[in-house]
TrEMBL record, chain B:
Pfam families per UniProt: BPD_transp_1
Full protein name: Sugar ABC transporter permease
Topology in the lipid bilayer: Multi-pass membrane protein
UniProt cross-references to CDD domains, sorted A to Z: TM_PBP2
Assigned keywords, A-Z: Cell membrane, Membrane, Transmembrane, Transmembrane helix, Transport
Keyword DNA damage: no
């Protein structure tokens, strides 16, 4: 009787499936990591030989070798530059715009709000063709400008920040106005510090999107030196047909920054994703 | 009266100052491309070359273009297979994490970790695992004396299965977080009341958890539908859209028309249709959210 009761306990099942799923999610990552420590030229490691020696750092060395095929440092740097600049601009401009629409009474506000809201319905994928023409016409091919300005997630950041600013108590702003604070000071002294945790969550969400962006950077960065990681990695790996170790070493190197960000900012990341959902 | 007017004027200037930088970038890189894209879709000519006005020719060609219809059908097929599986997997993972087992942080980290990787790394990992003859699965099987009878990238069905596996593995954690947020909004006293009534675990799930998650589930379904319409990275990296065009979704097809065949006008027309579809879905989403609150 008790054994049947135990059998029916959902917690037991949760343990079984929880750890089973965890193993399934981690296994490909672990396989990537172990394969990267094999010698260059190693073919796909079968399960039986996965943990066998020899291990070496040669594959990493080969990826890092500055012979122009894999510019790992450069690609990582490009991804970081594009990600950080895009995130900073998006969040700052959105915070200003959200503050204006939320707290300053002016004519045409409804129109502006509707116009920005409409942007939520436009996927970047559906405007890459005209964007590519614009960028080419401006002579921006293979430049940071081309990588950074198009496709910033302005409407999403605006909406999330506006929702937060809407909820702030009016007394706070009135008190500041009484003290004769200018409108920029109100933003800098009240809105900015109070919404900093929302801004952090939005920032991380936008940074991840930017970090993962493949289609747009692939179109505008054809120079090896201007590629971001998602573009550079497949280009580099396409020359290795059977070699497993070197491509996996490049995967590991490409993943380290994102995984570090995750380990340090796990709470913010989860908050950022929840916020896109709750709205 | 005069003072009132100057106040409104001051507000106007302030609003303008705060809005201007945002609006410049937004109009330049979001709104203008839509208009430019629509104009381009009414023309014939290649990227950078001379363009001539062609009316609705591109659109009428689209209606008879088998490749367009097959890429649209491929996209719809991916929605059909990916949406139910991402809902079930995301919900199950969220329920597990929400039960506060021993090692919950570890479980949540493991479930979410793949989402942090770049789509290029995801693609590369799954190609090396799944590819025939030299893939991890094929080699492991053959070392045990089993020949793998099917090829993961060899047919329409298996190709989509590979894309589905990679996508589920990559994004399950993201959807888990959405469900988790929904679960944590359910007030505890609902469950406590059910405990007093002596309700079992299944009934609590059936009559409290499931109805409370309606909103989140609708959100996950819509987000997955939209992201299926934007599907590009996985097919481009894993199956290359093949065999033939069997795993080529809409965005992948647009990419081919625009940047392999350089038929800018037609690519813009297909893009505009994609824009209309996603705008429609977003409108439905907006209506749903509005009716809720």
């Amino acid at each position: 009787m008790t054994s049947i009761k135990r059998w029916m306990n959902p917690r037991v099942w949760a343990y079984v499936f929880g750890y089973l799923f965890a193993v399934m999610m981690i296994a490909p990552l672990l396989w990537m990591l172990i394969s990267a420590f094999k010698e260059p030229g190693s073919t796909v490691t079968i399960l039986g030989k996965l943990f066998g020696t020899p291990f070496s750092l040669e594959s990493f060395a080969k990826v890092m070798k500055p012979d122009g095929t894999a510019m790992m440092w450069r690609w990582t740097l490009n991804s970081v530059i594009v990600g950080v600049v895009q995130t900073a601009i998006t969040v700052l401009l959105s915070s200003w715009a959200a503050f204006a629409v939320s707290r300053i009474p002016f004519k045409g506000k409804t129109f502006i709000f509707a116009l920005i809201l409409a942007g939520m319905m436009v996927p970047v994928e559906s405007i890459v063709v005209p964007l590519f023409q614009m960028v080419t016409d401006m002579g921006w091919s293979n430049s940071y400008n081309a990588l950074i300005w198009p496709g910033m997630m302005l409407p999403l950041a605006f909406l999330i920040l506006k929702q937060f600013i809407d909820q702030l108590p009016n007394e706070l702003l009135e008190a500041a106005k009484m003290d004769g604070a200018g409108i920029f000071r109100i933003w800098a002294r009240i809105i900015f510090p109070l919404s900093s945790s929302s801004m952090a969550a939005v920032s991380i969400f936008i940074f991840i999107q930017s970090w993962n962006n493949l289609l747009w950077p692939m179109l505008v960065a054809q120079d090896t030196a201007m590629m971001t990681l998602p573009v550079g990695i497949p280009t580099f790996q396409s020359i290795f047909a059977t070699d497993l170790a070197v491509p996996m070493a490049s995967n590991v190197l490409a993943s380290i920054p994102a995984l570090l960000v995750f380990l340090f900012f796990q709470k913010h990341i989860i908050k950022g994703i929840s916020m896109t959902g709750i709205k | 009266m005069k003072q009132h007017r100057s106040h409104a004027y001051k507000n106007y200037l302030a609003a303008l100052a705060f809005l201007a930088p945002f609006m410049v970038i937004y109009l330049w890189f979001w709104i203008y491309p839509i208009i430019k894209g629509f104009m381009t879709s009414l023309s014939k000519g290649s990227m950078g070359g001379e363009k001539t006005f062609a009316g609705l020719d591109n659109y009428s060609y689209m209606m008879s273009d088998d490749k367009f219809w097959s890429s649209l059908w491929n996209t719809l097929y991916f929605i059909l297979i990916s949406t139910p599986s991402i809902v079930v997997l995301g919900l199950v993972l969220a329920l597990i994490v929400n039960m506060k087992l021993k090692g919950t942080t570890l479980l949540r980290t493991a479930f979410f970790m793949p989402y942090m990787l770049s789509v290029s790394v995801i693609g590369s990992i799954w190609v090396f695992i799944l590819q025939s003859r030299t893939g991890f699965i094929a080699e492991t099987l053959s070392s045990m004396g089993i020949t793998m009878g099917v090829s993961f990238f060899g047919s329409w069905g298996m190709g989509w299965l590979s894309i589905l596996i990679a996508t589920l593995w990559w994004t399950a954690g993201f959807n888990m977080i959405l469900f988790l947020a929904g679960l944590q909004e359910i007030p505890d006293d609902l469950y406590e009341a059910a405990d007093i009534d002596g309700a079992g675990a299944w009934n609590k799930f059936r009559f409290i958890t499931m109805p409370s998650l309606k909103g989140v589930t609708a959100l996950v379904v819509i987000l997955q539908t939209i992201s299926s319409f934007k599907l590009f990275g996985q097919t481009w990296l894993i199956t290359k859209g093949g065999p033939g065009t069997s795993t080529t979704p809409l965005v992948h097809y647009i990419y081919q028309i625009a940047f392999k065949q350089w038929d800018t006008g037609y690519a813009a027309a297909v893009s505009f249709v994609l824009f209309l579809i996603i705008a429609l879905i977003s409108l439905i989403q907006y209506k749903l959210l509005m009716s809720k609150s």
